[in-house]
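Page 37, top half.
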Amino acid sequence: MTTLSEATYDTPYGPGRIVARRSDRPWAVLVLTHGAGGGIESHDLEVLTAGLPKLGVGVVRIEMPWRTAGKRIASAPSVLDASFTSLVDHLRPRVPLFIGGRSAGARVACRRGRALGAVGVVALAFPLHPPGRPERSRADELLGAGVPTLVVQGERDTFGTPAEFPLGTSMVVLPGADHSLKVAKRAEPDQAAVDALLVEGVHEFLHHRVGRSGTAGE
């Protein structure tokens, strides 16, 4: 059984929201934030929130102040970083901390993970470049995370296909999935199978980084 809690906290840029799904016997916690085009109700964040706590990983979703305020346009990267840091500082996990996010939220996680003491970063649908503009690469943010990083990328992501990522990137590829990590209605494998791959891939990464004793792995 898992429990859900929700709270709102002030940041230097207005209030943000924290929604936590706790595990009865946690051995890690994964903090996730959303992208510029959606909120914490994004499909992939919902899938991980439903699946990981059953496996011993608490999931905390962070809603940025711009989203809490009902705005349609995301804040500048520096504002996102400061807001995320302020909200994560309210958490007091007693188990190893992982930081992650989807799309623009994955960029925030890569920029702030090490400073926040994370033992790993989970980058969902990392926007390696704007669609059709591969010369505007954001690989430096990914490579500069400073902690082990897992990329979960859709095979058809127009913000960067798996083959475009730097050599050696630790990655879970979701067959047929787009930037939302969703597949077409009649795709094979179907959405349920792809969602299972998402949960399994993230769980394996966390488990590899953290021994069940609760200490960071090599």
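Page 37, bottom half:
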Amino acid sequence: MKLVFAFFLLLSSIAFAADRPNIVFLFADDQRPDTVAAHGNDFIKTPHLDRLAANGLSFRQNYCAGSYSGAVCVASRSMLMTGQHWHNIKDTRNWDGLPTLPERLGENGYRTFAVGKWHNGLKTLARSFQSGKNLYMGGMSDHTKVPLQELKTDGTLAEKEMGTRFSSTHFADAAIEFIDDQDSDQPYMLYVAFTAPHDPRNPPPSYRQLYYENRPPLPDNFLPDHPFDNGHVSGKKRDEGLAAHPREQSVVSDQLCEYYGLITHLDGQVGRILDAIESSEERDNTIVIYTADHGLAMGSHGLLGKQNVYEHSMGSPLIVSGPGIPKGKSTEAMTYILDLHKTIFSLCGLPIPNGIDGRDLTAIFNDPTASVRESIFLPFQDIMRAVRNDRYKLHVYPKINHVLLFDLVDDPEEMNNLADHPSYAGIVKQLTTLMENWQKHVGDLSPLSVDNPGPKEVDFSKIERSLDRWQPDWIREKYFDGRANADHGN
């Protein structure tokens, strides 16, 4: 009798699970929030992201919640997977004691499958996903020579095989194969983490040529160099070494063309995945989430990397499409990428586990004018802090006791510092208090000033450029004077 009861209990749980939606999570790498045509960029071609936006809800103020590392992607992905703010992730390598999103979905009847970049170690991968294909276990590689591995069902990795196609194509291939193999008996979570548009900025030649011939303008906040030492511009920094100082407009223009080329090629692979979903029997029961781990400076404020707290680097696109999601709408609600952890549980009809940070965004699906928070906090290591409300944004650079204040309504490019204007002293005080409250909330113990601040000025002529081994020959020739010896990633 007990066996019969257990059998029917198993059947009922399988039937209940089968009614739940599938989740296809598409994760770009280093994509600025302003690089989707449907979101107002008239110079980039993203027809498939535009299609997704037309069929879903676009979040226009979405952020990475800062980082404990210069490899911002590591912290961003850790927060997404654990649902914890980075100050609450004590074991940043293995996430010990912190169940992951796909791990919990698997416990609730989901098939979980990973494709693409995983920069958080094998231990976390093996307990998060039941299997995976065309995985890249690292932070970056030449897009045309990606070492790929399979995650076997026993939690081990197969031997590496060198990819023969472009990275985004390989990842889309594996995603499509997985989608085509599914049936309606078991819901799934498919996680596809692209390595584009992270450098090396070497899209297929026709894609960069497309933008060389139709050049996008430089960012409105382009500067030859950052005006002060933010804590990450001095010294031998990889991302900031991708172009010489001062930044020449022609060099940044070429790199922007190459960056846009990566995004347009990625967009085409997203289109292939969307086509596979639409051709499947599960098309009406599949939720697609597209976002990126963070943005990128690409010449804004004299910077190239993402190791800063400006909007262009902490922001990222976010589009959600599927059953129950409004079509062709957008929201100005301030959100974090880590909010997707709670949100996915709600979308799947599962109880949200206790102790998860972030907010459930499903209220916004019902009313895109709704909000889930009144402010955003952006802490980067112990060298930068920013907080914003619906209008103003405060930057604090504790190592040099420097403060910036921007009116994001009148100055969305963050170029006109109001912090020293007496009429804005009250706003600075108000936002400083808000920042301190956020610090208490997330357990951030870093001071906002120091007794012996360092110099603000930077002698950019003394900065050595770092070259990593993944840059292809034509990029070394073009941007590094043909330099052969790499000093990073060996």
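Margin note: The first strand starts at residue 22 and ends at 28.
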